[in-house]
Amino acid sequence: MCSSSPNAAPGGERPEHTLEACQLTIAQGADFIEPELVMNSDGVLMARHDPRLSDSTDVAARPEFAGRRRTLMGPEGETLTDWWTFDFTAAELKALRARQVRAGRPKAHDGLHEIPDFGELSALAKAEGTARNRVAGLYPETKWLLEHAAAGLDIAAAISAAMTAAGRDKADSPVFVRSSDHLILKTLRRRIGTRLVQPVCPEGWQTGAPATIPLDEIAG
User: Fold this and answer.
1) Domain coordinates of the chain in residue numbers?
2) Fewer CB within 10 Å: C terminus or N terminus of the chain?
């Protein structure tokens, strides 16, 4: 998730999902960076762990955005009140500054770095790999498919368009697209040749429970 952590136990020298964190991670030797992708109201893919903004940005301290806070249902059926990426334009998100999310990690860079979009991350990985004469790949993960759809946003279309625009839509590209939702992966398989990854876990995280997604579904 572009949160650099070499040998220091706490890790996360930079707020995660920032260009600065990804650049440092590659410099420390990472072969791939793993941005998790959500969308804004413009339909642009942005790097955030999920669409919520309160924990990873300074949005709560911005009075101009106080009225944007609202409640919706999360992927696990939970009721969540927060600020959401899909209620903000790209320019508005760029006005925010990233913060360290996890307790026990350095806060010295809070408030210094922007929220990058996927195009910026893709360009960074290519440039940093070229500068070091090696490949720096991408391992993006899509998040909150149904919630994006409810906001009128097609994250599968955005992913396929972004991969094609970046020239990363071929099977031999240094890219793996990961999603917990097999439906988006099936859609992407029809549109791009990029390698796809499907995480599988037991239902309810219970030992011995059936898999959340049958293997024949993944084969499709």
Assistant:
1) 19-51+86-219
2) C
CB 136 within 8 A of CB 160: no
The Cα–Cα gap between 132 and 152 comes to 40
Residue reference for tokens 């924990």:
55
- Tens digits of residue pLDDT in 148-200: 999 999 999 999 999 999 999 999 999 999 998 888 999 999 999 999 999 88
| Statement: 19-51+86-219 belongs to CATH 3.20.20.190 | yes
Q: How far apart are CA 201 and CA 184, in angstroms?
A: 17
Helix (H, G, I), strand (E, B) or coil at 125: helix
Contact (Cβ atoms closer than 8 angstroms) between residue 94 and residue 114: yes
Radius of gyration of the chain (CA): 17
Strands of the sheet containing 195-197, edge to edge, are 45-47, 36-39, 141-142, 176-178, 195-197
- Among residues 96, 82, 114, 187, which one has the least CA distance to residue 145? 187
Instruction: Give the residue-averaged pLDDT of 124-139.
Output: 95
State how far Cα 130 lies from the chain centre: 23
- How confident is the model at residue 2, as a pLDDT? 63
Mean pLDDT of all residues in 20-35: 94
- Tell me: pLDDT of 41 over 70: yes
